[in-house]
Amino acid sequence: MTDIPTQNRNGPKHWRLALPDWGELDTIWKRKLPFVLWNVGEQALLFHWLDAAVDQGSESIELTVVDRPVDVRQHIADASLWPIEIKVRSVNSIDPDNVDDIVDRLPGTPTLSKSPADGWSLLRHWFEIEQDWLIQFAEDTKQYGKYAAIGRSCKIAPDVKLNPPFWIGNFVSIGPGSVIGPGAVVEDGSILPGGNRVERGHVGAYTYLGPETSLSDAAIHKNELVNFKHQAHIKNLESFVAGGLDKNKQDHAPSPAFKERWAALKLYLKWTSQGSGSEMTFTDLSGQERPALSDSSVEARRPWLKEVVKGKLLLFGVTPRTAEKLKGVPEDWQAILREAPTGAFSYADVMGAHDIGSDEETLHSVYQAGVNAERCHELFNNWLKELT
Amino acid sequence: MTVSEKETIGSRASENLEDSFWGNEILSGRIEQWERKARLRSLRWAFVIRMALLLKRLLDIVGSIFAIIVSAPITIFTCLAIKLNDGGPVLFKQLRVGESGRLFKIWKFRSMVLNADQIKDEILEQNQHADGVTFKMKDDPRITKPGKWIRKLSIDEFPQFINVLKGDMSLVGPRPPVPREVALYGARHLRRLRAKPGITCLWQIGGRADIDFEGQVRLDLQYIHSQSVRQDIIILLKTIPAVLLGKGAY
Description:
Number of strands of chain A: 23
Number of strands of chain B: 4
Helix content of chain A: 25-40%
Oligomer: heterodimer
Shape of chain A: globular
Structural class of chain B: mainly alpha
Structural class of chain A: alpha/beta
Largest interface: A-B, 41 and 50 residues
Radius of gyration of chain B: 28 Å
Shape of chain B: elongated
Low-confidence stretches of chain B: 8-12
Strand content of chain A: 15-25%
Strand order of the largest sheet of chain B: 1-2
Mean pLDDT of chain A: 84
Strand content of chain B: 5-15%
Largest sheet of chain B: 2 strands, antiparallel
């Protein structure tokens, strides 16, 4: 235990940050997360700001969020590394008088002269931020040498040329004859089998890049490629050129906890008068077969409870529905309902709207999936207690 | 070039490709072969990653059970010594910062008097470190008689094998700091919290408490960077003489 060098800490004690509302600009890559949660080098852009807050001695941060607050909340809940109190405030529009700074660039860099206007400028802005970060990172961690720039348990062939600045995550395998950098980011768990060149490039997490493939001015994530120089976007690359490694793990729907299955089993045995339902099935939004319901009462959900016990459906989530039910629903709402995890009961049931696909039910489901999942889950637990 | 021209060229190109490249029987067989190779390579690497994590945990479990059994005579003797000295509790729990900043309680043999926290304020002025952050000083009056020997021989760390069994800690990893220290960290020091904390690490076998803070962080990062089960075993073996010789511990 020795002295910790004292930092220059003269920043505001309470820091108010606003997150930019660029969800609609993301027309090309269409990523699930808002811009501030995109990885810039080793961590998400937002977390670089938390780093800055630690360095300037802030004790609490208030985040003002417009774009996908649920995701931001979830990531903040997992961000236990920073010894700072973080509050997330979800609003409809940002009031510039109430914020100290906007998280649209790296901390400590001059404010943007003009913010991105379309999909490509947004992607290029992200890419440039990352390249700037690499240079800054190499400067900051000079004293730690290569130990900061390469993650744990990596397998790197001895003849690989590493040209700084670069950053390599955990569990990365790089084969012989590769040239990494300058300006390369390789995220966790990726494989570069050999003869690869990554120069001003970004290889996403758990990505397989084929042998003898070079990447410059481009980002690749799983089997999706974005080239910034030629403004090209390619989806579904051949699997020997590039592909995802944990495809099954990522795409697999979350399975219910033991507690949920037990509650479902209890309800299933309680509602025996309903019968086991018809043999009819329908295809839901994620392309899975679900048993059809006989009517729109709560008890009619009995065949779905069986699915919960089997682990194919959550107990609480957005109820599965056919694609036809989405007709007439605004497009951004459709996207929210498609992305949400499916469950046998939803917040709409708590509010008394059991008819799936009705306007009221859709509204409640969108509120649950897109705005305040935690509160809805709380209310649902109370409702479930009354039911059982 | 107009749009329609582009379209026709594009469609012609794709037709040609269908015929000559993708449609070619010999090549299409080879493409499947490449794909199989790629899939195999991915699966093998995923297996290696999983085994690396599994082996580390396995080493923790086996190593800590072994250590608990081997150290049982010393543990019983220490328990008796602490109990007979002032009759207070043998173990004490302390809040530490673990993997990715999550708090957990670390177990130690009590080496200080019962009202150590009260006395702390009184001796704060005598503390060797001017900022009053780290309360580790030579000839601390709060340390009991058996406590002095416990600390000298690093026996106070033995109950941490229980933490290792529980999964809060690992045998080898950066030392878990107390929350008071983390409050003073800069952002670049937080990096060391990304790995699971451990009982021993590179700087314990190097010079122990004689290294400055930046040097500790550097060694922690060096460990995280070059982590492997083989290296863990080497560090564990090197720790034993370091503990026995009592280098840098006070």
